[in-house]
Amino acid sequence: VFFFFFSISLRTMRQKNKVLACMEYLILWKTQKDDWKFKKALQAFMLHNMYNPYMFDHTAFLLVLDYISEMKGKGKGATIERARAVYSNEVDLKEINEDALEMYCKYAGNIEEGDVEDKMKIDFNDMITKVVKKRADQVLHAIAS
Prior knowledge:
Blueprint: H1 2-31, H2 40-49, H3 58-69, H4 73-87, H5 94-107, H6 118-144
């Protein structure tokens, strides 16, 4: 049991470190474009996880939207495709919901996921699903602008 909890913590820490690296990447892109360099791995992580509000809060997501609005090439096409799929329920949101719940439990006072009642999980998943769909809509509008 301890090992399982330890692996979740390491995974969560790695994800948070990647989110911080994405934020540094985006801030540099926004403020010092001459010094900014494209980083494929960070962009891929960001585009995959930007729908999760526990990874990219509202302010961070707004910066992601700015970045997305200027994207070109394959990344732009893939982002449009995924946003459409998310918005139209063609993507299973289970992974996003599980990651969001894990991060919520971790940062809301080390609540164990097993302690969260099924009704609360359903309500939580419904809330996250609404946020994810709204973000997919915002992504599509940002790219279209």
